Every structure is written in C-alpha cells, then in structure tokens.
Amino acid sequence: MMGFCRWSCLELHALFPTVVATDHLDLDPLELAALLQTVLQCRAEASGNPDPGCAWTGDLNGVWQLHQHPACRLITEQVIQRVWGYLDATGFDLTRLELHLQRCWPVLSDWGQVVGRHHHPNAHLSAVLYLSGDGTGADGCLCLHAPSQCNELVPGLAVGHDAPIAPHHPCNQSRWTLAPKPGLLVLFPSRLDHSVEENGEAEALRVSISFDFVLTAPASGEPPEYLAPHPGHWQRCPRPEN
C-alpha cells in the first residue's frame, strides 16, 4: 500500500524567482521629522485622491519630483545606492547601464484609506521608503501580488470555490505582505502588481515615499538590443502645426 512517507525524498526547486529586496535606512530623528513635515506640507489640506477611500498620492496631485526638495536629497542618495546594489546583486553589469530617477512622490494614508492594486508601466524598478509604522501592519501592509500562480496546476483552482489546494501554502501564495516601519526600504520590479491594505489605526497616519527608476544604455558606446539608448541621444519630435 502506497503511503505518504514515500514523498519525504521529494526535493522541491523554487525556480524563476521575482527578486524583491528590503533594507533598513537609519533615519536620524531630526531628519525623519523634516521628511514628515515636508510631505505634510505637500499634501496641505487635501485628504485623499478623487476615488473615495483612497490614500493621497503625490503623483496624482502634482508632487512627483520630491527628490529635488532639500529635505529629501540625502535620503534619495541612500536609496539610489541601494538600487545600484540591487542591480549588482541580481546580475547586472553596472558598467553597461545608466540609472535614471524618473519620479518621486509621497503617499499618505489616513484611517480607512487604501491604495488599490496597480503597477508602474512607466518605470523598470520601483522603491518605497516608509516614514511611519510600528511593524505590526495595523496601519496597512504593503501587498506584492504574484503575476501568476504557476503551482495551482489547474488554472483558477486556487481561487475557485472549495478548491482542494491550501491557499496559504508557501508554493501557492497569491501575495506577500510587509508591515511598514520607519526606515524600511523595499525594492521591486515596477511591473509587479502591488497594493496597500486599509489603514486600521484611527489615530495613525501612514506615510511613505515612492521612487520610480528607468534603466538605459550609457551615453557612450552602442546600446544593446532591448535597452533604450541614453536620453542624450534621443531626438524630440515637434508636434505638427495645425
């Protein structure tokens, strides 16, 4: 009679991973206070985005160059250093790349607010730096969503009614959550869907800064196929006159 014990020799190989990096930046209390004051001034009297229940995001409200603000320049330099480290650790030849910070914006989430599931088609690599949180996730966890569930075997099985597959099994997770805390930095491919859970703390304001990066070829030399030439070689095409 065949028993479960015969499967104890199975060796599972988790192939083709999506690489998400985390780090912790030591934020001086005075620096953290200055950053919080800066993003609060950016939001001013606004409370959210046009969609009800959504957090206030600077990129939809004209604040998308936050890295140019004097209070953000030092922390931006640290984030850029970590991005280069991510590229190096994932096998990129840094001498054959140029890295461009495309946009940077704050996200503020009051009680009951969320950030809906989305991705950043305008960028290649994204980062988020948290300025608040206690590590419990009560003010809303970051959720990174699996592009597909390769191990459900039968398409749709993992979300079907009464499915015979454990939804929280390590080989079948549909998302990964991360609780914010000050100084936590997360780096991930921009194409990866992500969202933010509801802020369940009535007295807490969830605050983070997002960054979008683009990779191009260096300004000198021939650009490789599929990597855009350096913007210095681009030619602007004027609109046709009416």
Q: What does this 3D model show about the protein?
A:
The protein is α+β, with helices and mostly antiparallel strands. The chain has a domain at 26-43 and 54-147 and 168-187. The chain has 2 helices and 10 strands. The chain has helices at 29-43, 73-89, and strands at residues 21-24, 56-57, 98-109, 115-118, 125-130, 142-145, 175-178, 184-189, 194-196, 206-216. It has a 6-stranded antiparallel beta sheet, with helices on one face. It has a 4-stranded antiparallel beta sheet with strand order 4-9-6-7, with no helix packed on it. It is globular, with a radius of gyration of 21 Å. The mean pLDDT is 92.
Q: What's the rounded overall pLDDT mean?
A: 92
Structural class: alpha+beta
Question: What proportion strand?
Answer: 15-25%
Q: Taking strands numbered 1, 2, ... along the chain, how are they ordered across the largest sheet?
A: 1-8-5-10-3-2
Largest sheet: 6 strands, antiparallel
How many H/I helices?
A: 2
